[in-house]
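**User:** You know discrete backbone vocabularies at least as well as I do. Would you mind producing a protein record, from residues through to fold? Write it directly below this note and I will take it from there.

**Assistant:**
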Amino acid sequence: MSSFMTILTLAVMGLVAIVLIRGLFNMMKGGDANRSNKLMQLRVLLQAIAIALIMLTLWLTGGGRS
């Protein structure tokens, strides 16, 4: 179970990085401000999910304690 949670957490963290990079490129090229705002909102949502998954994984595994 903890392996699944770890993989899922890493996948969500990867999605956060992808959305962040897309948002930065959109801002650099002077793209639509509404699109940049939507990407920022999506990034914040994905970060919240990633933090929740990290906390859940730590809780399920005992936080690294033996």
Q: What stands out?
A: Residues 26 and 32 are 7 Å apart (CA to CA). Residues 2-61 form one domain.
